[in-house]
Amino acid sequence: MSASAGGPAAAPGAATPLSAEVRAALIERLTAMADDELLLGHRDSEWTGHGPLLEEDIALANLAQDEIGHAALWYGLRQALDGSDPDALAFRRDPDGFRSSLLVELPRGDWAFTMLRQFLFDCYEAEALPRLARSAYAPLAEAAAKAHREELFHLRHAGLWVRRLGLGTAESRARATRALDELWAALGGLLAPLPGDALLEAEGVLPDWGAVAEATIARARRALAEASIDPGFDTEVPPASSREAVSEHRRELLGTMQSVARADPEAVAW
Amino acid sequence: MTAASGPAARTPADLVAAAWEALRGVKDPEIPVLDVVELGVVRDVRAEGGAGPVEVTITPTFSACPAMHVITAEVRSAVESLGVEARVVTRLSPPWTSDDMTDEAREKLRAFGIAPPERHGGLLEIALDAPVRCPRCGHPDTRLRNAFGSALCREIRTCRACGETFERFKPL
Fold this sequence. Notes:
heterodimer; A: mainly alpha; Ferritin; 11 helices; globular; B: alpha/beta; GMP Synthetase, Chain A, domain 3; 2 domains; four-stranded mixed beta sheet; three-stranded mixed beta sheet
């Protein structure tokens, strides 16, 4: 499925005029957001045919489609700023050009790992998207409002699974705890601000990203506590891994995801 | 004023009306009993003159809906079949909501075997968990089997009364 599934966003001319510095910073931030969605969607899609239950196989396929659709929204906003082609960004960019966070790059692991990872990402979107929907940059606000409505289904699904895992058996709780240990170390990289975010916040384009991070952690802690999964962490945002660092996981993921497109660059979408 | 490319001159209002009519022929590729107008996907139709161009504004149901590629292409073709240039604009705001579907569309869905989304007026979480009538027998005692179905817009349910397993168009 091509990355431009959602179609272009607002018509040209609808965007607020931006200074060169703000435009550059916004492009970086949109790329990071889009890359996170695209890679997470790919990881979700890896469960197709391997889900523990038929219903969950279907659920993960739906989640993957949604995440990739949201990636298309953010790539589309970038396209309106610099003319870049979403399909080229998704399928022909080298790993060192991506700005995804380690959290979404990590392999799918076992079911507990996938559910905990999805849950943490959904917590972040539940806090980021409604705040982004108030952005001074109208195209971003509109896209965030649209994505936020659809994220409700994600949070319900992941939230239910966190409870099942935490309140299920000793094994399910142990697997959830093990997953959280690894994911918590990567959460900082997802929530950390980019160099250009301060300027975007000053312009009202981005919300207070520190507040997004704090709210995400608070939401996650509450739900994990209710599921009897002891986070074993304090409220400080853990040290961040840089999005510019190319993890082996990113290489492996893109190597697979881009392989068909790279095998025949002239192929026309059907 | 230039002559229309059709057999007789049209006013812009005539052209817009003809365009709306033509768009009723564009069906949802996955639910072919519904057209994009009653689905609430077509937001606006404008014509600058009786000879076009005609600008159609559409909005996606779900942002990742893959049917939007086909729908966009068919909307363009429908307008071009009137002999005028077509411009298709996609807008995300205000976001599509299942409340934008007409009552006729809801009845067509039910007759097709898909339980329609109830009107929610923004109270989405309440609508999601409200009783859903079986499209086959009408009984309200149906059970959610999967919050996700064969498309982004659907969930899977089973009727406790007649045993039918069916899909429901999710309220959004």
